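2024-03-11 09:14:02 INFO worker-7 job=invfold-0412 stage=load source=structure_tokens
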């Protein structure tokens, strides 16, 4: 993968290129951020640039033998470690075929998507003690091509404690010309001793303009639809692709939102309860997607009111609804809407009773929508 294939992240690209060109590469780096922001593609582009024999000032050539081997994930000096389902196999090597297929088809993916690919039972994958022994073994060998040896550990927070502790010594004192790249979504579940041995590189959200342009060119979206999707997913390409693959779901969320606002404004209690019952039966992930969509619509309503529609990021259908609806979202009630829908998302994610939660949310919406 080349840097030009990574969506956005221009500052980080420049930083990594500078590391290579000035030969000031930290031997252990932690790429920290949501997978949808592009940590793995960025790491792959960085490694390809490092190995490229004909690199330019801004990117790898993409055509030399090293570039081709990195692109195909077949370079003998680049190793991968990632969470696997222990009941199937305890080591990453057993899943390399699936890993190469996943990265080749779509390098922006998360742990749930990876789990779905390798296990139809959906069991939780981890990076095990046996995997740490394999990592140490691989890095103790000499480089095949005389340059760097690279170990990319994806979703490093899924290492169990024994595995993490076994890697501490080699992270602190690696063999010569060894590069560790650890990718993690959250540092909350990482050992502090692991963090202290790595150089932290935080991966920010993809810029909305950059994500919008990417969606327009790659997925043939109109500029308004692409910008609406970029704004709704807040710079997360994985979420944008998920929604893009579910046009019907996006339309359904818009209709659910319109229906909720209308029945709550009219104080029609029976339709409100019917709406809550329907929401309670659509499934957890769809419920979470709807709540995030509602938060997006509240933000766009406020922007429409206070920026004379200069900063809104909506589709034509959404804009048509907001022409009349946005006046009901003001400084008097926006905080209440945002807090309650964020809280609802939090509790749904932690398996709250959905029907009770959405019933309560209906009455809160009815209350706040009349505070405008």
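2024-03-11 09:14:09 INFO worker-7 stage=emit residues=372
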């Amino acid at each position: 993968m080349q840097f030009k294939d990574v969506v956005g992240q221009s500052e980080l690209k420049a930083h990594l290129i500078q590391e290579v060109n000035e030969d000031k590469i930290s031997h252990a780096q932690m790429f920290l951020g949501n997978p949808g922001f592009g940590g793995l593609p960025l790491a792959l582009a960085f490694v390809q640039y490092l190995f490229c024999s004909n690199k330019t000032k801004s990117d790898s050539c993409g055509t030399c033998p090293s570039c081709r081997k990195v692109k195909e994930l077949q370079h003998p000096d680049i190793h991968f470690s990632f969470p696997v389902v222990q009941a199937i196999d305890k080591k990453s090597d057993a899943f390399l075929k699936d890993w190469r297929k996943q990265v080749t088809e779509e390098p922006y993916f998360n742990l749930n998507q990876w789990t779905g690919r390798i296990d139809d039972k959906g069991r939780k994958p981890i990076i095990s003690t046996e995997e740490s022994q394999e990592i140490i073994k691989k890095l103790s060998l000499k480089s095949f091509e005389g340059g760097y040896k690279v170990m990319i550990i994806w979703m490093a927070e899924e290492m169990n404690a024994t595995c993490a502790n076994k890697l501490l010594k080699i992270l602190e004192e690696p063999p010569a010309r060894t590069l560790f790249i650890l990718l993690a979504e959250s540092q909350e579940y990482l050992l502090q001793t692991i963090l202290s041995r790595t150089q932290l590189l935080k991966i920010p959200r993809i810029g909305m303009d950059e994500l919008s342009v990417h969606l327009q060119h790659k997925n043939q979206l109109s500029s308004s639809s692409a910008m609406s999707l970029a704004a709704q997913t807040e710079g997360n390409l994985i979420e944008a692709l998920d929604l893009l693959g579910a046009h019907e779901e996006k339309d359904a969320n818009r209709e659910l939102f319109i229906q909720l606002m209308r029945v709550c404004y009219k104080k029609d209690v029976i339709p409100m309860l019917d709406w809550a019952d329907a929401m309670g039966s659509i499934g957890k992930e769809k419920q979470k997607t709807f709540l995030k969509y509602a938060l997006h619509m509240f933000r766009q309503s406020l922007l429409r009111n206070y920026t004379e529609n200069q900063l809104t990021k909506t589709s034509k259908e959404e804009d048509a609804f907001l022409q009349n609806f946005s006046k009901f979202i003001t400084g008097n009630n926006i905080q209440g809407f945002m807090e309650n829908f964020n809280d609802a998302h939090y509790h749904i994610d932690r398996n709250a009773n959905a029907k009770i939660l959405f019933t309560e949310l209906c009455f809160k919406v009815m209350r706040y929508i009349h505070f405008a």
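2024-03-11 09:14:09 INFO worker-7 stage=report msg="The mean pLDDT is 90."
2024-03-11 09:14:10 INFO worker-7 job finished
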